Structures are given as C-alpha cells and as structure tokens.
Amino acid sequence: MSSSAVPNSGPAPAVPAAPPVRRSGLTWWKALVTGAVGAAVVNLIVLAVAKLAGAPLVVVDAGASHPITVGGVIGASVVPLLVGAGAALLLALWKPVFLRIAQYVGGGLALLSVAGPLSSGADGGTVAALVLMHLTLGVAVVATLELHRRHSAHG
C-alpha cells in the first residue's frame, strides 16, 4: 500500500472565534420582580380556584376570624420573597455561595411553614389552598434565586 501526502498549500485557514458566552439568567432586579409577580399570580389563581370550589377561606385564631383576601395573598406572596431573596442577593455580593444556601433555606422554610395551615383548624379546602400557597412561595424563592444564579458569573 502506498500513502499519498497532501502538500502543504500554505497556512491553515483561521478558525472563527467563538461568540461570547451569553448567560441565561436574569439580573438581580429582574429576577426579584419576576419571582414576586409569579408568586403573587399563582397564589391568586389558587385563591380563585379555592373560592370557586366553595372553600370559606377563613382562619380562626384565638376566637377571631381572619378572612383570606386578595390583598393579604399579594402581600404574603410578595413581601417575604422580596425580603428573603433580596437579602440573599445582597449577601451573594460578598460570598456567592449565599445564593445556593438561600435556595435551600427558602425551600426548607416554605416546607416548615406548611405546619401553620395544617394546624390552623380551618376546613379542608382552606387548608389545602394555604398549603399550596406556602409551597408556591418556596418554589418562587428557589426559582428566583436560580434565575439570578444562572446570570451571575459566580453561580
């Protein structure tokens, strides 16, 4: 067998440079807004479905009735997410590992907070709606921080 060599016809063609890597996540403020709006919208849907299903959506605490309102759902969805995820994002400026830690802590706190509705003594429909709302907030915190973590250079 014979082999044929291809003569060197000059310098090798230049390999085009790879385009810069584009991070897929959101900036901190866009992630916070997306998470807060998402949590509020999903929890308002849960509230609407619970109302349509006939749940009274009232929790009695120490003899006082506390109706679950649209404003209450929005506040309980947005404020904890902004405070918790916002604090995590600030801490991540110092130590990036706080983003991942906050995801575990936020998800864990949401699971623990389910104990409140479960022990409230409310009817089944109200308890189910509140449990789902608490879990939604936990998922929103984890997702919000993940949206930013994917954007940051230190994720």
Describe, in plain words, how this protein is organized in 3D.
63% of the residues lie in helices and 5% in strands. With 155 residues, it is mainly α. A two-stranded antiparallel ribbon has the order 1-2. Helix 2 runs antiparallel to helix 3 (97-113). The radius of gyration is 25 Å and the shape is elongated. The chain starts with 27 loop residues before the first helix and ends in a 6-residue tail after the last helix.
Show the helix and strand layout.
Elements: H1 28-52, E1 58-61, E2 64-67, H2 70-94, H3 97-113, H4 115-118, H5 124-149
Antiparallel strand pairs: 1-2
Distance between the termini: 56 Å
Flag low-confidence runs.
none
Q: What is the 3D form?
A: elongated
Spatial strand arrangement across the major sheet: 1-2
Keywords:
mainly alpha, 5 helices, elongated, 2 strands, single chain, 155 residues, 63% helix
